[in-house]
Amino acid sequence: MLTGDDNQSLERLNVSSSPVETRVSKMMSFEWIGQTLASLCWIISVFVYGISSTGDWLQLMAASSWMLSNIASIFVIK
User: Fold this and answer.
1) pTM for this one?
2) Distance between terminal CA atoms of the chain?
3) How far is CA 67 from CA 37, 48, 61, 62, in A?
4) Is 77 a residue whose pLDDT tops 80?
5) Rounded CA Rg of the chain
6) Residue 28 Cα to chain centre, angstroms
7) What is the pLDDT of residue 27?
8) DSSP, res 19
9) At what angle do helices 54-75 and 30-49 cross, to 10 degrees?
C-alpha cells in the first residue's frame, strides 16, 4: 500500500508515453536532412548565379532564414 510520501514521489515523476526526440535523432531524420540540404543548395545557387539585383538579395535572405530555422529547431529540443 502506498503512503502519502510514496504517492507524492510518484506524482513528481513525469512519465510520458510520447517518444523522446534527441538532437541527433532530429538531425538524422529524413525531413530535417532534406530541408537543410534544400536550403543549402538554394544559398549556393545564389552565389553561383551572382548577386546583381534586389531579388537576389531577397532570395539569399529567404534561403538563409530557412537554414537558420532548421538549425534553431535542433536547439529547442529539451
Assistant:
1) 0.67
2) 35
3) 9, 18, 10, 9
4) no
5) 22
6) 11
7) 82
8) P
9) 160
For residue 50 the three cell numbers come to: 551572382
Does residue 23 contact residue 72 with C-beta atoms inside 8 Å?
A: no
Residue 62 is predicted with a pLDDT of: 96
Whether 66 contacts 42, CB under 8 Å: yes
State the amino acid at position 40 in one-letter form. L
CB 68, CB 35: distance < 8 Å: no
Query: Is 39:63 a contact under the CB 8 Å cutoff?
Result: yes
Per the CB < 8 A criterion, the answer to whether 60 and 46 are in contact is: yes
What is the tens place of the pLDDT at every residue in 11-33? 555 555 556 778 788 888 888 89
Neighbour count for residue 36 (Cβ, 10 Å) = 18
